[in-house]
Fold this sequence. Notes:
Elements: E1 9-12, E2 21-27, E3 32-35, E4 40-45, E5 56-61, E6 64-65, E7 69-73, E8 78-80, E9 82-87, E10 90-95
Antiparallel strand pairs: 1-2, 1-7, 2-3, 3-6, 4-5, 7-8, 9-10
Amino acid sequence: MSKIKKNDEVIVLAGKDKGKRGVVKQCVDADFVVVEGVNVAKKATKPNPMTGITGGIVDKLMPIHVSNVALFNAATGKADRVGYKDVNGKKVRIFKSSGEVVKV
């Protein structure tokens, strides 16, 4: 079970987008996630009339390392660390600061 999952709201802790919040769109692997609106790069694309793609410069979401993001706690309005707890025989994620269960 990973600490950061798809559709979690996270806040960026380090890098050029420090302080930005966004929703995790994809978990690339165990170490990288793609966050909406964070770590956006410009990419030049060639036109392809067969598929209807127009050429030009497009924005592309790039992965960011999970150590540079933290789960956003709506109750405190800050970034928070994640831990695990056994509740009724199920392993659930909790916020380290308050001990509350993370709602998906």
